[in-house]
TrEMBL record:
Compartment(s) of residence: Mitochondrion
InterPro entries reported in the protein's UniProt record: Citrate_synth-like_lrg_a-sub, Citrate_synth-like_sm_a-sub, Citrate_synthase, Citrate_synthase_AS, Citrate_synthase_sf
Main localization (coarse): mitochondrion
Similarity comment: family membership: Belongs to the citrate synthase family.
Domain of life: Eukaryota
Gene Ontology CC entries for this record: mitochondrial matrix
Source organism per UniProt: Torulaspora globosa
Molecular function per GO: 2-methylcitrate synthase activity
Name the record gives this protein: Citrate synthase
Leader sequence residues: none
Amino acid sequence: RSDLKAALKELIPQKRQDMLKIKQKCSDMKVGDITVGSLIGGMRGNCSMFWQGTSLDSQEGIRFQGKNIKECQACLPSDPTSCDPSDNFLPESMLWLLMTGNVPTKQQASNLSSELAYRGAHLPDYTIKIMRNLPQDMHPMTQLAIGLASMNKSSRFARKYEQGSLGKNDYWEYTLDDALQVIASLPKLTGLIYSNIVSNGEPLGQYNENRDWSYNICSLLGMTTGDSINRHDLTEQQAKDFVNLMRLYTGIHVDHEGGNVSAHTTHLVGSALGDPFLSYSSGIMGLAGPLHGLAAQEVVKFLIEMNSKLSPEMPKSEIEDYLWKLLNSKRVVPGYGHAVLRKADPRFTAMLDFVKARPEEFKTDRNVALMQKLSEIAPKVLIEHGKTKNPYPNVDSASGILFYHYGIKELLFLTVIFGCSRSMGPMTQLVWDRIYGLPIERPKSLDMDSLKALCHL
Ligand code: NMX
Ligand code: MLT
């Protein structure tokens, strides 16, 4: 076991005291005004959630416990078994940072990685049975949501709560236990879903308790040279790069403050004391929407389709025409725009940096080239179109096409990888929700008559 629980125990008294003071002294303090526009406009700009681990600035992008992506890359520990300084940090290091607010030591990161690897080694038999019986063509996100929901049977929180033996101050310990189990189980669930889709359920790789969480995802996708069937004959270097792409991707998609659909849904369901398995299963359902996580898949489809229509040199004028046709047919340009961000997403930039660091690998990939070209052309078109508040690339612009490059060609599956990563932020918040004893979430709604009366109509 890692020392995460002990680290949290040390932090809790002070944090609880801070929250109590805020509640007692400032509960009547105004945070902002809620407008009718926000009421009928997806609560946009309405600051009404508490979220501890991350915060999104419209200009700068995401900060994880106050640190931007580059700062995280500079300080978070990477794979302890490798001495390559170009390795990306482990998502497990990010999890420690989110949970505790502190950068883990190498040992703390490595212990947490080992704990997750140990916890993830065995899924419940009934979950494996259910997963193996799901139709091959069932949406991969539905498969993931079902797998997670089935594990509610093993929830320690749910069991203790049902027994009536759990005091409110102790909810968090069992929530933490379940939350870590959710995260730890994702590599194997992902592997089961992928092999269900591509190999009639035949395993594509081995789970290795001595390796990190992202490595195990790659191995179970059949994408490593040592522990898997290496489906695409990747060279040693390509397989190593793929693992690092997985660490990078899953390390920076963990959280995007509280209001995004997957995080918000997880929090909402958890506020009714739904256990972490049920809560995150619901979050996964939210992530599966095309305006949210599924956009990664939409982007890949879009790039491939556009490429098939463009002349080999991909002239700017043809790309512009293509975009205008799409916009004029009232469709969105996938991978562009954001509800909060007003600049290019720094997560997109981090994925682009991955490409730029490997010019030889990507030099003949026309889809990756188009993705890069589009990021220069599409913003101008969207600005001229005049509707989109943020005409710049978002996180989904680059990610899917990079996985596609290495051989993950089953487009609907891409969002499952997003779902692995996104577990870390919302699960962290759920633990802190229980530490603070936050109540059930229940906003007031207005009916049409009340709205009309308010608007003097
Ligand atoms: N292409 C064309 N039109 C757009 C786009 C786009 N990429 N983005 C926004 N618009 C339109 C939007 O549909 C709306 O039109 P209307 O008034 O006719 O309803 C108008 O511009 C204003 O929308 P915004 O306030 O700029 O965006 P909003 O906050 O409502 O939505 C997104 C944010 C991300 C849902 C939206 O930008 C979008 O649909 N983007 C494409 C899908 C996508 O890439 N989603 C991934 C987001 C990241 N993620 O992983 O979750
Ligand atoms: C996310 O990572 O959740 C997306 O960028 C969407 C959002 O923040 O609303």
